[in-house]
Structure formats: C-alpha cells, structure tokens
Amino acid sequence: KNQVEQSPQSLIILEGKNCTLQCNYTVSPFSNLRWYKQDTGRGPVSLTIMTFSENTKSNGRYTATLDADTKQSSLHITASQLSDSASYICVVSPGTSYGKLTFGQGTILTVHP
Amino acid sequence: AAGVIQSPRHLIKEKRETATLKCYPIPRHDTVYWYQQGPGQDPQFLISFYEKMQSDKGSIPDRFSAQQFSDYHSELNMSSLELGDSALYFCASSASGQGSYEQYFGPGTRLTVT
Fold first, then answer.
1. CA–CA separation, A24 and A74 (whole Å)
2. A31-59 pLDDT per residue, tens
3. Contact between B58 and B46 (Cβ < 8 Å)
4. Which among B42, B103, B110 is the nearest to A104, CB-wise?
5. Hey, are the CB atoms on B45 and A98 less than 8 Å from each other?
6. How far does A43 lie from chain B, in Å, by closest CA?
C-alpha cells in the first residue's frame, strides 16, 4: 500500500516565525509530489508541485524541497502569518495514474499572534 | 478566475436514502476527480473521468456510481446511504493538456447521513 507520512501532526508557532514541515513517502513509481493547504471544511489549494527531477520550488513564502533518493520532502514557511493557520497536506502522484493521488494525513499548523 | 463548483455545499440524508452530488469543473478542464474525506481522515480517491469516460477507479463502493456529461460536469450518485458515508466529498478538475496535471479542488460537499 502506498503511504505518505507527515510530521509533525500539529505545530504551534508565533506569528513571524519560520517553520518546516516534513513528508516521507513510499509511493513507487513516483510522478510528482504536491503540497496543499487546506482550511477547515474547504477544498485543498495547491502550493507547489515537484517532479522527481526537481529539488526545490518556491511559491512566495512557501519553499518545498524534494529528495527523490531518500523519498523525503519538506515545506518551509517563512515569516508566518495568522492566515497560514491551516492543514498542510503532502500529496504524491504515482507514475501510473495521475488521478490516484495519495494524501498524507496533514500537519495542522496554528499561528498565534 | 473561475473555480470548481460543487453543489450542494451541504446535504443531510437519512440512512438508505439516495444522494446526488454535482461538480462543475473549471472551463476547458476535461478531467474530473472525486474524493471522499471522512472526519479527521485524509481524502481518498474514488473515481475519475476523462472526456466523459471513466479513467481511473479507487475505493468507490458499489453503491456509488458516477458519470461525466457532455458539458464535462460530473455527478456522483450514492444509494442506500450508510452512516459511514458521512464525509466531505471533494471534486477536482484538471486539463489534460497541462504537463503537470494540476488538480484544482472544489470547496466540497458535506454529506451528513442520519
């Protein structure tokens, strides 16, 4: 069974601080890895997509890294804002099917003023 | 920019009833995906359609069926509803011409079965 494991499960930080979320996956073959932000009760919103040949990708204050050899990815958030409070989900797409995304259980980030 | 539209946003049904969820993809997107997210769980892929044909199938119960219509909107039909079907149902769409096959998610339909 393909798996995507995320850590930590939850994280509380103060506004303005940086944080890093981790994702380990065992999906094989692997096509691409995505990070999504999901607010409670709403649909996931894509932050970054990386193929196996990409090591890093940035989207504003979000920077994702990927090590396809160790099957690890991280999402770094800089200068956190209150609006960053959400669940951050690591999603892996297998090489065989673009539709069958495998979702991690997410890291719940809470940013306090 | 237009996003994925799902209707209804909230739905309350009783056990053994039938429910129909609708999804309207982003204009010019030809692929639709359905996901089910139970309370405190990660989304699970149910089924997808490309150009009105089923393209992939995940953990969709036999009591559920879905189709994509000529205008590319999709409907998920759920029969003999069970309490365990209570979940958030997401629809996503993508354009096959995009190399990344980026999926854009709708806001979801929250189904409550009582």
1. 9
2. 789 999 998 878 889 899 888 888 999 99
3. yes
4. B42
5. no
6. 4
